[in-house]
Amino acid sequence: MSAGVLLALATVMAAGQAAGGPARAGAFAARIELTGPIGPASAEYVDNSLERANRDGATVVVLQMDTPGGLSDSMRSIIASILAAHQPVLGYVAPSGARAASAGTYILYACQVAAMAPATHLGAATPVSLGGASPLPIGNTPAPSGTAPTPSPDAETNKVLNDAIASIRSLAQLNGRNADWAEQAVRGAATLTADEALQKHVIDFVVGDTSTLLARADGRRVRVAGTDITLHSAGLPIRDYAPNWRTHLLDLVTHPTIAYLLLLAGMYGLVIEAFHPGVLLPGVAGAICLLVGLYALQLLPVNYAGLALMTLGIGLIVAETLAPSVGAIGIGGVIAFVIGSIMLFNRGVPGYAVNLGVIGGIAFSAMALLVLLLRLVRRSRRTRLFHGDTQMLLATGELMQAIGPDGEGWALIGGEQWRVRCESALPAGARVRVVGRDGLLLWVTPA
């Protein structure tokens, strides 16, 4: 082989390596699966996975999504991580039947390449206020001709929605996608199927799997960290980055129902310890549960009026047990507790609400305990009160030994051993009744 041919071959190989082709050793695509509601655990998982992929030398990152939406703060954290990533991020709504709703739509717009599997959808990105009410209608109130428009009375709602519109439009402009539809998704909760999204230039591809996505994205020019690069993704092996134990634990703790139960366990544990000092276990376990629950609350969209009502309800129920009334205090406590539990979390955020069955079960248990307490109080009020000699004179017992006429012996009365005296002779085991007391000596007769 001539020197000229060898030189030409070496030049072609060097050019292929300089272009970053998929044939170079060690190149791979990192895949991060973002599933379920978007919360603090999801944001930490995506951020850590992007950092790991960068350290491992990933060529591209595939962010596979199936989410109903979630918390705004967590969504913005994920978007910031995507925009700061050193590798291009390919957003992919998959598998078939998945969705990128609400916060998922913003994240998909933030990715340099957006794709969806068949039979998936995205949209409905209207932000929801803490009270669960939709911020629509939005904008200024129509005014008569020739007069200035009157601002909407809900200025806070307008601010939240306009901020969301500006955010998603900026992401659309950054990656060259349909900004007008993005605004519709926020302002009017518009949604699109995969094919409709492709037609409206909301996404770049409709593909059936990750390998096809990498092949279709190959050769595209994208902007990463302010620099335009060409993707060389065809044929790259795929390496999955699964959540670690910390992510799973954080996801569990920040689940609204778990956080709610931790909060209750903590409160009741401390109450039990207060009524039974020295037991320690309820107090220690309660303190741990309460601290973990409070940690979860500061990461979740909490309505503090609901938390205050829950605390008031538990306080009233405890007060009913200490100073029994006709039930008004306890019933009021149960009502306050149920209303506070329903109000506690933002029910307008997908995936972030306490299961109503759990609330109903706890409320039913509280009512059952209250009814039982009232019955016991009622029964105790009907019971005749005895104390001192009056109670002792009605007691009966059993002789522990035989005694002679006008003799003394020992008897078991009320679970205690007493010295007794009887005018008549009685065998051991005979039943006797107390008729008098002289200090620690009881006078008895046959029962």
Automatic annotation (TrEMBL):
Pfam families (alphabetical): NfeD, NfeD1b_N, NfeD_membrane
Q: Which residues cross the membrane?
A: 252-271, 278-296, 302-319, 326-346, 352-374
CDD domains hit by this protein = Clp_protease_NfeD_1
What superkingdom does the record give?
Answer: Bacteria
Q: A GO BP term, please?
A: proteolysis
Location comes to: Membrane
For this UniProt entry, what is the primary localization, expressed as one broad class? Answer: membrane
Task: Identify the residues that the record assigns to the NfeD integral membrane domain, covering every copy.
Answer: 257-373
Q: Know the name of this protein? A: Serine protease
